[in-house]
Design brief:
Elements (H helix, E strand, L loop, with lengths): L6 E4 L5 H12 L3 E5 L4 H15 L3 E4 L6 H15 L4 E4 L14 H29 L2 E6 L12 H21 L4 E8 L5 H14 L3 H12 L8 H12 L10 E4 L7
Helix pairs in contact: 1-2, 1-8, 3-4, 4-5, 6-7
The chain binds nicotinamide-adenine-dinucleotide.
């Protein structure tokens, strides 16, 4: 019952981890706002499949996380329509792999803007109503790279470490308002984001695809398995539950033991 009629905004939820979180929350009765850069027709199809399968409302926004005005308008429109946002999941993210001396300036800025700064804008826009109602859940999808670094991922590691700091600062600011703010720190999850970085990593490290998968990705994780999007989504749903009310300001690894090294 605790999830029924709640409303969740998940940024970057048109694929991968974000879509898995949207479906997991919808399966518990949460109404969903899908966001992503895909076409209106594709986003409508995702919403239709979620609302049909789980019997919840599902709407979508194509707000670009690079554009603060579009982020603010998205939040304003959702609050106008649904009155409140119970759950905010900052999930949109991109990756680019390159030695730092060749790292394109615009790519560095874009990664910081999408993977870090967009979360500042969404949180800033939702907090006034969460504080007024004295409830809310904020989950930032960070990464194992919020806790440790890897070479050739300077922008991503910087953005995710920044997101870890933002998570802790927000948690402290809202701790007495019944609002929690946590970061989930996944290891490698087999999604389009990971698939896309394989050719770049092959180039940076002079390796074959098989070598990248086995010696870079899976060798990082003692379990030698990819984390699944479903596992990340289950953890996100737990953090949204009443039982998780005392978990705040936490950076929670879900990485097959990677950061235990
Ligand atoms: P994905 O490529 O499937 O999902 C990324 C989502 O972000 C997509 O829906 C895309 O449309 C959206 N997006 C990208 N740029 C956007 C923009 N400018 N505006 C709005 N939406 C935008 O990849 P994923 O692996 O599911 O990644 C989701 C999150 O999980 C990211 O923050 C990523 O850093 C994080 N993460 C992924 C892994 C992994 O191994 N896949 C590990 C740790 C953390």
């Amino acid at each position: 019952m605790e999830f029924q009629n709640k409303i969740a905004l998940i940024t970057g939820s048109s694929s991968g981890i974000g879509l898995a979180i949207a479906k997991n929350l919808a399966s518990k009765g949460v109404n969903i706002v899908i966001n992503g850069l895909r076409s209106d027709i594709e986003l409508e199809a995702i919403c239709l499949s979620i609302s049909t399968e789980y019997g919840v409302r599902c709407v979508h926004s194509r707000a670009n996380m690079l554009v603060p005005d579009q982020i603010r308008k998205m939040i304003f429109d959702i609050i106008s329509e649904f009155k409140f946002i119970d759950i905010l999941v900052n999930n949109a993210g991109i990756q680019f792999v390159s030695p730092i001396e060749d790292f394109p300036d615009d790519k560095f800025n874009e990664i910081i803007a999408i993977n870090l700064t967009s979360s500042f804008h969404t949180i800033k826009a939702v907090l006034p109503s969460m504080k007024a109602f004295r409830k809310g859940r904020i989950i930032n999808i960070a990464s194992a790279h919020a806790l440790i670094a890897s070479p050739f991922k300077s922008a991503y590691v910087a953005a995710k470490h920044g997101l870890a700091g933002l998570t802790k600062a927000v948690a402290l600011e809202v701790a007495e308002y019944g609002i929690t703010c946590n970061a989930i720190c996944p290891g490698y999850v087999w999604t389009p984001l990971v698939q896309k970085q394989i050719p770049e990593t092959m180039k940076s490290r002079h390796m074959s695809e098989e070598q990248v998968i086995n010696t870079i990705l899976l060798s990082a994780q003692p379990t030698k398995k990819f984390v699944t999007a479903h596992e990340v989504a289950s953890l996100a749903s737990y953090l949204c539950s009443d039982d998780a009310g005392s978990i705040t300001g936490s950076l929670i690894p879900i990485d097959g033991g990677w950061t235990a090294h």
